[in-house]
Every structure is written in C-alpha cells, then in structure tokens.
Amino acid sequence: MRIAPSTQRVLMAARLIALARLATAALAGGPLYAYDYANRIPYAWTMSSWPSGQVPIYTDLGSLGILTNAQADGLVANAASQWSSVPTSSFRATVAGDFSAIGLGDVNSSNIASVIGTFNGGGIHVVYDNDGSILSDYFGVPPTAVLGITDIEWVATMHPEVLEAWMVLSGPGVRSDDPGGIGFAGVVTHEMGHALNLAHTQANGAALPSNLPRSSSTDRLRSALDRWAGRHAGGDDVPVHHP
Ligand SMILES: [Zn+2]
Predict the structure, then answer these.
(1) What is the tally of structural domains in the chain?
(2) Cβ distance 204 to 242 under 8 Å?
(3) Is residue 237, in this structure, part of any structural domain at all?
(4) For a surface tag, which of 4, 64, 91, 118 has the fewest beta carbons within 10 Å of its beta carbon?
(5) Ligand 1 centroid from CA 240, angstroms
(6) Are 192 and 79 within 8 A, CB to CB?
C-alpha cells in the first residue's frame, strides 16, 4: 500500500481475485478490505461522491473473445443493474461510458498499466482481455481457467471510501457454446461483487481450483493467496477461487 503523491488516496496492494469456473451460488462472506479491523469498518463506495449518486463504470473498447463489444457492455450493464437492485444495499452503479470517455484506448497486455496502477478519476474500470494475454502475460494465469480478476485499487486515506476498482474479464473464458454470453454473465456479476468489496464465503474453500496447471506463475499466485490468507486468519473471509 502506498500513498499517491498528489491526492488523498491509497493504492491497495495487489490481490488477485479470480474465478475458476462459472460460479454456483456465490455467497458473499464479508469484505475484502477493512479500513479499521479493530472496529470492523470495511471500505465501501459512497454514493454521494458520484454523479447522480451512482458509481460510474467505464468499459473497454474491442471485443471479449467471441462476444462483441456491445454484448460485453450488455453483460456489464446487467451486472450493474443487479448489484444496484439489492434491497438491503444502497449501492448504485451505472455504465457512464467506454474507455474513450476517460482518455483510454483499447486496453491489452501492452498498455494494461494505463488501468492497473493508474488512477483514472474513480469508478469501476472493466477491461476486456480479448485474447487472454493480460491474464497470461501480465498475471501469469491461464485465461481459460481464470475467467476474471477484480481488485479495489484506490481508496481514500482518511475515511473508509473506495475510489476506484478494476476488473479484467477473460475473452478466452467465454465458451464457444455460450455465444450469447448467458453463462458468462454470471462471471461478470460475480466479479463486480468483488468491486463492491465483497469476498467469497469461506464455505467455498480457501483454495485455488484444482484444474489450474502447476507452473511457476500459478505457484506464485498460490503463494500470494496463502500469504494473504495467513495474514487474515480469523478474519471474515479470504479472496480465493471457488473449488
Ligand atoms: Zn471471486
């Protein structure tokens, strides 16, 4: 975690939140990030900080595997609608535009640093990893096994407010027998839940999927998750894959 030089925000340490396969009954099990552990205060989005009281979502240009840009945008809008309709939650989000609206181009593995590690004015930034190269080359995970990664990246320093999150969705993760993205819609909704600072329930197990091949990169991922889980032993949850 570090403090950005010019503004009151903090870059969260990188944590990988990935989904191994289509989630079944993904029950949220608490927050991913706590502002004040002792008093159990999690980070959360503040609706009044945003235009029309809605967290702005910005979407990538280009396609998402076999899905067109418009289809992918539709899945994101659907996920935003679902999370904005939870009766017990004040969270509201809307797709405010695509990356061109915030000065970004089509994001791929060569310019992913324009989203990850860069503050882009706040909100949720959804990257379509069309060819899977961001997942394979930047994160070192297989894009047909890890369907999405989401992280809350920027938060306020003096109060528990989330400012910016990013989501990377796997193009190769959209199956050829899912041309309408009906199945993948669940992945998008699941990943957006992480952008809301929701973790998995521990009932899903603190383990990477067994079908992830062993490699130095997946070993690094396992090691990172193990360290995180160890640090947070006794906490609400661990951000891990579904078994
Ligand atoms: Zn997840």
Answers:
(1) 1
(2) yes
(3) no
(4) 4
(5) 6
(6) yes
